[in-house]
Fold NAD(P)/FAD-dependent oxidoreductase.
Amino acid sequence: MKNLVLLGGGYGNMRVLLRLLPNQLPEDVTITLVDKFPYHSLKTEYYALAAGTVSDQEVRVTFPEHARLNHVFGEVTEIDLENKQVLIKDKEAISYDDLVIGLGCVDTYHNVPGAEECTHSIQTIDKSRQTYQTLSNMPAGSKVGIVGAGLSGIELASELRESRPDLDIKLFDRGHRILKDFPERLSKYIHKWFVDHGVEVINNANITKVEPHTIYNHDDAYPMDAVVWTAGIQPSPVVRNMPVEKDRSGRVKLSQYHNLPNDEHVYVVGDCASLPHAPSAQLAEEQAEQIVQVLLKRWKDEPLPAELPEIKLKGILGSLGKKQGFGFVADRAITGRVARFLKSGVLWMYRYHNG
C-alpha cells in the first residue's frame, strides 16, 4: 500500500483531497494528512477574524473523512528527503511514498529592527486570534498602524475601521499609490474609501524601525498603541531549511510537473513553491489540480504530457468592510457592492463545496 502524505491542510492540499476523494483514489493508495489543527482554516478571512467582524468558527472548515484518509495533528519539524520521512514534534516519524508539501508561509520582516518582536500578525489562525485580542481590548482613541497595503493590509484596515470606528488607524504603503500594479481606477477608489472613512494612508513609506510604542517611517516617529505587520511573506522555516534549490524569495524551484527536479515523489504546493505568479489561495488550488493529474498518471504508469497547461488566474477580489469591495477580473476593474457581493459568493461556494 502506497502512502501519499500531505503536509499542511491549506488551500492546495484541500484541493488535492477534494479531487482524489471519494472516488479517484486508487485502491492501493492511502493518504495521511498532517496539520497542526483538526480543521482547514480560511486564511483569506483572517483579517476579519483579527478585526473582530467574524467568529472563529466562521473561518474553519472540517477536513473530509474517508476510510483511507488518516489524520495526524502535530507540528512538522523536518523533512528527511533521503530516508523519505517526515519528522513531527513529540510524535513518531511518518514514512511516505509520495509527498505534497503545503506548509504555507510566515511573515518576512525585511531585517527591520524590532518588527518581529513588536508587531502583530495575521499569517496564522492562532496569531490572528492574538491580534484580535489586542485590537478588541484597546481603549477608544488608540493608535493602530498597519504596515503593508497589499490585499491583507487593505482588508484589515477597512474591516477594523467598521469594527472599531473609535480607533485612529494609519495604513503604511510602500508604493506611490495603493495596489500600484493594478489599474489606477482601483487605487483611487480604495484611497477614497479610506479618506471617507477616516483611515490615513501614508504612501511611499519605508519602515526603518519598530519599538514597543513607536514606528519609524523614514526618520519620522509615529506613536502607536499597536502595529500589525502585513508587509510580505516567506516560506515556512521547515521548507527554508530543506537542502534543495530555491529562488531569491526562498521558494522551492520545481520541475514543470511541480515536483523536485531530482525527486519525482516530492511535490510542493502553494506559498512554498516558486511559480510565475504571486502566492495566493487561487494559485495553490490551480497548482493542486495539476499535481493530482500528475499523481494519477504516475500511479497508473501512464506517460505524462509533454507539458502542462499554463496556470491562468481568474483575478482578485477584495473587500472594503461588509458593503463595498474591489476587484480585477477578466482584465476589468470592478468596484462597489458588486465586487463585495462576488467575493461573498465565492467564499460561500468554497465553504459549501468543501465543508
Remarks:
- The radius of gyration is 21 Å.
- The first strand starts at residue 2 and ends at 7.
- The domain at 2-36+74-106+233-299 is CATH 3.50.50.60 (FAD/NAD(P)-binding domain).
- The chain has two domains: 2-36+74-106+233-299, 109-231.
